[in-house]
Amino acid sequence: MATPMAMAVTSLVIAAASSVASGIQSYQQGKAQAAYQNAMAEQYRQSYEQQAKATAQEYANQSAAERVQQMQEKTKASMEIQEAQKEALQKAGTMMASTNAAGGTLNYLLNDYTRQEAQAKEVFRTQYDMATQAASFSMEAYKNKAQNRLDSRDSYTYVDASPNTAMIGLTTALGIGSAATNSYGQYKSWSK
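The chain above was modelled as a monomer; its predicted structure follows.
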């Protein structure tokens, strides 16, 4: 039969081993949690970078398309103005060639053609200015949309989840101390 002292020591050793195993398990669990947190933070960082690149590329493409359209509008307006000038000169030339009218009537007709030409040019310029303003608004909207996409991402805040070795050591030591106290109490009760 085992002596009370042997039983108490055996109980102490088993409790101490259990406390140490629990401490090791807590430490390994903390390391696994830290590794998981690091992996999640890295995955989020990569995802954010990809999203930022895609957003920047989309903004660049939309802005470039808007600028091309703006240049096309400018070219179109310029051609329409030239066409209006050409038409006014042709009308004036035709009128001068076919009219034997008095100087005053000729001047009125020339002034009327000049006025019509100026109105046509103003219409084309106004249309171009409106298209330019619309393009500016669109480009600003593209920029704001891109910025909002970047700002709307939830930020992943990494919290250091590495195992707290001091706390694990203290917990293990307290477990061993508790086991020692229990073992001493059992030894006292068995030795009576």
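The longest helix spans residues 4-98.
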